[in-house]
Design brief:
alpha/beta, seven-stranded parallel β-sheet, 19 helices, about 45% helix
């Protein structure tokens, strides 16, 4: 897992490395420059003209160092200094002095180039960009050059991902040390292009100083999924109960069940409205089926299904009403590990007695609208502070939260995570039902409770990305995501 931090916290990491450990800032700067240079060397032949657009702070100093190294490697490099000398940092002035001694071209206005290195601002942008820097950013965006941004595209707020009036639209961004929130979250991530991380030698314990630190999962973390033993039977891989689907929502229950099976669940029982019986038997013949009559609801049948289960998912296509109130209450009272989604969340939101029953074995999977109903806060307020929203909800209820958005934020255990997989093609009916099935299926096969809350969105998004490659984002359907789960587990 890798770190994501705020811009202000990144400054603390830098300060710790320089002042506490004694690593010279010029050494860190050299390594930052080399991490960008390495990418340019891989992508750009030496006949390309390169313009480094440099601010006068330490990000600009990184840019001047990049210009020096590329020049020494035989590239035609020009430095455009975008700022006033009176506000320059010591490191910038030192780097510029070296560049002058090497007779690298330094200009005071933009010139044409094949490649532009954006080193105007680092992580400190907190107000709208105007003046000479704003003009430079607009010229960069109008150019046809390939653009490499150092750390963040200039004009992106490192703490939020917000575009501060105007921002560079990069083709590549090299995040220095680790990704910032501005790299990871929308709309900033759209401006970053292809993101890579430049490891410049910050020690891991430097990140302990960070207040707003999050992590993200990569393929390595799929090793948290236990290996299936050769000597096993269907009961070895969990008895999963899915309570889903009113008389108009058979598909939600079916997709949830199929997803649980695709991630390895051994037995899946679907508790659903009797009107769904024929459809679900056809779509998921492997599932055990229990149906209820909404006119004469048999609570004992529900209780027997809950008693049978090792883990439970409740909510996809469930509907709202007195019966659903009983279902949610019985599940929460069982204290069994469970995933609470969709209408089960809405049921809890309107019944504060149910809200008080949330516990540490619950994984909540709200989208922003459901989170708004649950917390009584506006969607815009939640979106503006999505990390705090997830963390505070976890602290209040002890449940884990998978707060779904274009970048899903997970509050799991004592940690925050950002899911970096997925695409806009997954904004389609049934996608959330698939996610619920994946998470409860992971719980069924024995994945650690906290890990399942984090791995579920990652696998879901990864499968969505694979599906988009096959069918395009425009044509992507929830069933395509389920199909690609087999590809992931084959890998």
């Amino acid at each position: 897992m890798e770190y994501i931090v705020s811009g202000s916290d990144m400054k603390k990491v830098d300060e710790y490395a320089i002042k506490r450990l004694g690593i010279p800032s010029m050494v860190l700067m050299e390594r930052a420059a080399l991490s960008v240079v390495d990418l340019i060397l891989c992508n750009e032949p030496k006949d390309k003209k390169i313009l480094v657009v440099s601010g006068v702070g330490n990000n600009g100093a990184d840019g001047v160092a990049i210009a020096r190294i590329l020049s020494l490697k035989g590239y035609d490099v020009t430095i455009y200094v975008c700022g006033v000398k009176s506000s320059a940092s010591e490191e910038f002035l030192a780097q510029l002095d070296i560049a002058k001694k090497l007779k690298i071209k330094i200009v005071r206005e933009m010139v044409k180039a094949d490649v532009i290195v954006d080193a105007i601002f680092g992580v400190g942008v907190s107000r709208n960009v105007i003046g000479i820097q704003g003009k430079a950013i607009k010229l960069i965006n109008k150019s046809r050059a390939t653009v490499y941004s150092v750390d963040l595209p200039s004009g992106i707020n490192a703490d939020t991902g917000e575009v501060m009036g105007v921002a560079v639209e990069a083709d590549y961004t090299v995040a220095i040390g680790c990704q910032k929130i501005g790299n990871a979250m929308y709309p900033g991530t759209d401006n970053c292009g292809e993101i890579s991380v430049g490891d410049i030698g910050y020690p891991v314990d430097a990140y302990d100083r960070c207040k707003h630190v999050a992590k993200y999962v990569d393929n390595y973390d799929l090793s948290l999924i236990p290996v299936r033993p050769n000597y096993s039977f269907k009961g070895s891989f969990g008895k999963v109960l899915i309570i889903a689907g009113n008389d108009e929502m058979a598909g939600a229950a079916a997709m949830c069940g199929m997803s649980a099976y695709r991630v390895g669940a051994g037995l899946v029982r679907i508790f659903t409205d009797q009107e769904n019986k024929e459809v679900i038997q056809k779509l998921v013949p492997e599932a055990v089926l229990n149906v209820y009559d909404s006119e004469e609801f048999d609570v004992k049948s529900l209780e027997a299904s809950i008693a049978w289960a090792d883990v439970i998912a409740i909510g996809p296509g469930l509907g709202l009403g007195n019966i659903q109130d009983v279902m949610v209450e019985k599940v929460l009272d069982s204290k069994k590990p469970c995933v609470v989604d969709a209408d089960a969340i809405n049921t809890i939101a309107k019944n504060r007695n149910l809200y008080k029953k949330l516990h540490a074995e619950v994984i909540m999977t709200p989208h922003l609208g459901e989170m708004s109903r649950l917390t009584k806060k506006g969607v815009d307020e939640i979106k503006a502070n999505i990390f705090e929203a997830a963390k505070n909800a976890h602290k209040k209820t002890f449940a884990n939260y998978v707060l779904k958005d274009a970048r899903t934020v997970v509050a799991s255990g004592d940690d925050l995570f950002v899911n970096m997989t997925g695409n806009n093609g997954m904004a389609t009916a049934g996608s959330g039902d698939v996610l619920t099935g994946i998470i409860v299926g992971l719980l069924g096969i024995g994945v650690d409770f906290n890990a399942a809350a984090v791995l579920g969105p990652y696998i879901h998004g990864y499968a969505g990305d694979k599906a988009a490659e096959r069918v395009t984002k425009t044509s992507l359907m929830a069933s395509d995501i389920i199909e690609e789960l087999t590809t992931i587990f084959k890998q």
